[in-house]
Write a structure and sequence with these properties.
Elements lengths: L6 H27 L2 H30 L5 H20 L1
Length: 91
């Protein structure tokens, strides 16, 4: 189906596929239990998955770019990620 030559890209996609599987399973569990309280608890657990996946995929991307981006470019990317988390925590 796909021919992937870069292991970093395969890893990033794999983590995203795992994340999607977890999200889909959570949605199915919410429907199965059919209670707001249970769905709320499941959703609270998903709040841990999102940032973890984001950090993992970002880290893999940075590792893949390590030799291709200048030091200032890498610092800009890291600053951007830090600003995303800073903005989320300010809400």
């Amino acid at each position: 189906m796909f021919f992937i030559t870069d292991k970093i890209v395969a890893g990033m996609a794999g983590v995203r596929i795992l994340s999607a599987t977890i999200e889909f399973t959570a949605a199915m569990l919410m429907l199965k239990f059919g209670r707001v309280e249970t769905a709320f608890k499941i959703n609270a657990l998903l709040a841990l998955v999102g940032p973890t996946v984001f950090l993992t995929v970002t880290t893999l991307g940075l590792v893949g770019l390590a030799g291709k981006v200048s030091f200032s470019g890498m610092m800009s990317i890291i600053l951007g990620v830090a600003l995303i988390f800073s903005g989320i925590n300010k809400l």
